[in-house]
Backbone:
């Protein structure tokens, strides 16, 4: 294991160990990608804000 991440229920990072700079953090197996400086998660076609626990962009459908 190169890194370990602990998150709250809505995706906020609580603790992180290791040096792996993997952008696929919270639920990465389902395509959730950390957007870096913005503090948002890119989920398919929408952006999710873990600070408020909701999507901030409209569904593309």
Residues:
């Amino acid at each position: 294991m190169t890194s370990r991440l602990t998150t709250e229920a809505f995706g906020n990072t609580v603790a992180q160990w290791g040096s792996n700079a993997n952008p696929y953090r919270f639920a990465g197996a389902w395509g959730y990608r950390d957007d870096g400086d913005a503090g948002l998660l890119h989920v398919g076609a929408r952006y999710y804000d873990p600070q408020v626990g909701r999507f901030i962009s409209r569904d593309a459908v």
Observations:
- The CA atoms of residues 32 and 43 lie 5 Å apart.
- The mean pLDDT is 75.
